[in-house]
Structure formats: structure tokens, C-alpha cells
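Quick one before lunch.
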Amino acid sequence: MANMAQAIRMALHYAEENLGVTDIFGEDVGAPLGGVFTCTQGLKTAWNSPLDERGIIGAAMGLAMAGHRPVAEIQFCDYIYNTIDLLKLAGNTHWATNGDWAMPMVVRTPVGSGIRGSIYHSHSFDATMTHIPGWKVVMPSTPLDAYGLLISACQDPNPVMFLEPKALLRVKGDERIPGEPDDDRALSKMIDAPLGDRSQWKPQWPLVEGFAVPIGKGKVVREGAQATVVSYGRTLPLCAKAAAQLAEEGLSVEVIDLRSLWPYDWELIKASVQKTGRVLFVNEDTEVTNFGEHLVRRTVEELFYSLLAPPRLIAGKFVPGIGLADALEMASVPQQGDITAALRTLCREQP
Amino acid sequence: MSRPRLIKENSAPLSLAREQLIRIHDLMVKARVLEERLIQMYKQGHGYFWIGGPGEEAFNVPLGLLMKCGEGPAYDYLHAHYRQSATLLALGEEPIGALRQMKNTATDPYSGGRNFAGHFSRRSKNIAPVTSPIEVQYAIAPGTAMAQKRHGGDGITIVTGGDAGTAEGDFASCLIWSSRPANPLPILIIVTNNTWGISTTSDGQHGETNISDRARAFNIPAKTINGNDPVESYQEIQAAMDYVRKERKPYFLEAKVSRLYGHSSASGANFVNEEQDCLRLFEARLEQEGVLSRQQMDEARNRYSEELAAAARTVRDEPQPSGDSIWEHIYAEKK
Ligand SMILES: Cc1ncc(C[n+]2csc(CCOP(=O)(O)OP(=O)(O)O)c2C)c(N)n1
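Model of the thiamine diphosphate complex:
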């Protein structure tokens, strides 16, 4: 099965061929590297931009305004912060012009911990991004969802922020991308650039299909009856593992992968919380003014009388960065044990 | 305080065709009267804020007249500054649109009552939305220029901004992205230099002799011109545009202009006597060379004054947007 980086690459290839994507660009996005996480290797419209994040977002906006379909990459979300006002503009242009100008662009950026990236390669961006109206915001946790969400993003007439959990970029999926070959080694031979001289290399793209995951639709990853856990990105597989472990202890946890942060699938959360009466939200952005806080607030306001326990949030610690040392990173963002323990407590909590 | 340093005095003969001079004059008057009306509306409480371009007509009118106006990459894109009502009028916009934006009516053609005065936007004319954060247009403009280069044809991108704003990183972005050896862009980079930020003068902030000198570091041909002279402006803009259209490469123009009513309503919007008035200077030359008489010019001004007073009365009675409309146009729909 493809990993998420390969899935992203195949989705971009599909989008170049079928959805009118004209420019895939950013720092080191074109040949020879094809992106620091290899997500853009071999793509025919990929090119290297200056080392200038504001220029990248600005150029994407201009291209989109002129009718093109750009997919811009910011090398690490830690460096997208210096484009915040441009992101605000991209999100408000359609509104500010009373519907005259649209901004059909996609921005991809890797987020979160997981590569021992220290203070400046471990940031999250979901809380900040969901604070910018006018964008759609997605964050997959599997290669197939990455593929399908990116295809939807490239079809959307609005700006879409595609957050890539960097800890999961190398993780293989359980589901095949439609059209991907059966043999992983064969896939790698076809689409992974070789080490060393790449000047003669050309990818051999499999005939992938236009499989789209709709923006705004979450997914029940595991059904359960006693508690619901809602997550996305790096922490989602941890939640799924926690649920599996707790099942052995006789506790039944429903796991929801939100996939889209804006718009998000409230109906799915609501139905699940009404069934289980208990909910834990998990993500790794810093906990103060966290997107999960919004979900907690809405749960309290709208589902209060369905609740058997207070809704909870596990998020990153409110500290200025993630330290390099293993113990520092582990202490800063939610880990498997934190989630399992929190769910265990939640399941047993009685009103 | 510091006044625009003029490259040439306004005394050279008027070397444009008579009809063209008359057309430029007419639009300059129209734009000036529009701005004066906007200031008056603001002062009478018919708007919350004024910012505009009285003093920049001699540059902005020729710019609009020379643009290839239309929609899409075959035509010119304008990523404008907030002082360019004169360019908008030269592109055929009706002045009542600016009044509607001042009064933030539902009929405001640029934003439906959502945006500030002087923040024009018109997709059908490739006028990109003017933004409040200054200089961001310099980061966005290379994108439309890229699309035009790929499209072929002779459409170009024009980006304008103020001198103080060139200290922002987006200005450097524009120079870099426009002159990349991998893909030089058909873009006319303009700075209208009135020597002021809001209250901060450029001499305390800018070590470069001319702002246009910064273009030389990127091998972008550049010129500093007298933007208070409509004839010089017309000819220099035309030459610059010809270069960009044909070579598909960037060109840089710095125009020295005046700021006749201060920065904006925030600084009072009162007439500043020490600045050169491009309209008055031009009118003296038109009269001197017998192109137009004083009486003809006064008639033009009176006609526009009346027209705009009537327009202001019309706008006064037009509806404000409803509170519910905040939910409209957050997202574009799939077509
Ligand atoms: C990014 C940003 N910072 C500050 C402001 C506030 N502001 C509005 S106009 C202005 C001065 C701009 O001067 P200049 O670029 O020379 O243009 P001018 O108004 O003189 O034409 C400032 C500081 C702003 N609008 N945007």
C-alpha cells in the first residue's frame, strides 16, 4: 500500500492530468528534490520558488485570480506564520468583493510533531487555521483520505488548507488508492525518485482514479457505545489504538476521524455523542484557544442533556515550543498513554 | 517639509495630441471633484473614513488610459493602491461607485458596503481588490503576471503602491519574483512616491537615493519620473508598458507625486498648500498653450461638481446592506 507522501503525489498527478492544476510550487518542491518530504517528486508542473513564504502565498493568490489552479507548498507550517495576513486576505477576498473574486487555490503544509523537529519543525497549525474564515481546512490521517481530500481540494473553488501530519507521511495505509499497483515495491520503483542523479529520471504513473473524499465529512473509524473520541492527523491512529486496547478491557469506544476541520462534520459528532454520552477531543496543537475547545463548547451548548460526563480535551501543552530531547517532545504533545488513560477514566465516569 | 524633487520642470511644451490633452484634463478634473466630494461626504458624516488620491491624478489618469482594459489574462491586471480613483475613472468606472462605497450602501459595486473608501475591485476589468494591509499587492501581482506569461499575448500586470510601503518585505518579494531567471515576468512595478508614510517622511527612513535604484540590483530597467506632469507620465508609462508588453520582462517606474489632502481623514483631510498641485500646473500650461481656456476648464469643473452633488443625493437615499448579508459570499460555489 502507498504511504501518505506517495498518495499525495498520486493525487497531485491526477489533479495535473484531470483537474487543471497548473502550478505545484514552493521551496524545493520541483526537481531534483521534489519536496523535503518527497510529496512532489516527478510532477510535471512542480517548480522551485524563491525562499519566500509570503511570495509563495502571494503568487498562488495571483495565479488563482487569473484563473489558474495552483497548489502551493509551505515547507513546514512553522514558516507559514509569516504569511498570516495573506492567508486572511485569501480567505476574505470573495466576501470582501461581495462575491466578485474567487480564490481557487490549495496550500499544503506539513504539521505537528513526530520527526524530532524541535522548536521550529513541530508546530501545529490547526487552531490558527480554523481561526481564518473563508478557507476550508482538511487534515487526513490515512493515505487514502489524503488522496481523496487532496482531489476534493483541487476541485474546490475556494482556498483549501491541506495540513499534512508529518509523523504519518511515511506510514503505509490499509486501503489501496484506486489504481495503485498491488505490490508496494513495484509502486516505489514507479514513482519514488532514485537516490543520486535524477536528471534522467521520469516517474511511471499508475492509472489512478478520481476518488474524492468530500470536504466536511468525517468518518467513524471504529464503532463503540460507551465513549466517543474525536481526533484527526497524527493523534487519530493513537486514538484508534487506545480504543482497540480498551476493547480488550471490555470498554467500548467509538473513534471518529474528523478529516475536515472546516467545515466539519458536526452531525457525525452529534450522533455519536448522543449515543455514547461521553466525548474526548484529541489533537496536538497547544491547548489554549485550541480548535478542540470550540468542539467542547459546542458539545456543551447543544448536547448538554445527552452527556453522562463532562466533555474533555487532550491537546499539546501551552508551552512556547517542542524541545528536541525525547522527553521534552513526549511531554509536550499527547502520547498513546495519555489518550488511553483519559478514555479509560472517561468510560468509567458516572453522572 | 520635504517636497517632491522634480526631475524636470513643468515648462516643456505639451507634446501630446490636443484631444489627448483635453481627455486627460477632463479625467483629472473629474477625479479631483470626485475626491473633493468624498471628503465632503466624510466630513458631513456620510462615511466613516476617507482615503484617496487628490494630487496623483497626473500620473493615475494616464496609467488608466494606457491600460488594456478587460477580463482575464489577455488584458492588463491592476493591483492598485488605495489612492487610485483617477485610474479607475480612466478605466471607465462611474464616480458614483466610489460615493456608494463611501456611504457603504448595498449598491456599492466594489464591496457591497463591506470595504473602506478607495478600496476598488472589479473582476470584469481585471482590477484586483485593493487591500488595507499595504504592499501585499506586490506579493500577489507576480501570480497574475505568471498566468499572463503562460497565456501569451501582450497582457501585462501593473502593481502600484506608496513609497513608505516599499520597506515591507512584499516589495522585495516582487522584485525577486518578477526577475527570476527561471521565469521573468511581464509586470510593471510602480511606486508613487509622495515622500510620506502617514506622518513619517522618507528622508528619515530611506537610505537609497531613488527607490527605483533598488530595481537595478535585479537588473530591472527603472526610471524615476515627475508624476505631477501628465504628459511626462503618459509618455513614460507608455514606454514602460511597451517594453513590458514586448519583452515580457519587468520594468520599474517611480513617480514623484503630491499628497494634496494629507494622508486620509485620520489626518484631517485638509488641503495642503505646500504641495504642488498637478491639476493647477497642468491647467496653467493648457491655458498658456491655448489648448483650453480658463472658462472651458471652469465649466468642466462646475459640470462635474453638479453631477457629483446629484450623485451624492442619490446615494444618500440608497439602502444599507442588511445585517443578514454577512453570511453571503463567504464561499464561492462550484459552477
Ligand atoms: C501593513 C500595514 N501597516 C500599516 C498600515 C497603516 N497605514 C496605512 S497607510 C500607511 C502609510 C503608507 O504610506 P505609503 O506606502 O508611502 O503610501 P501613501 O499612503 O503615502 O500613498 C500606513 C502606515 C497599513 N495599512 N498596512
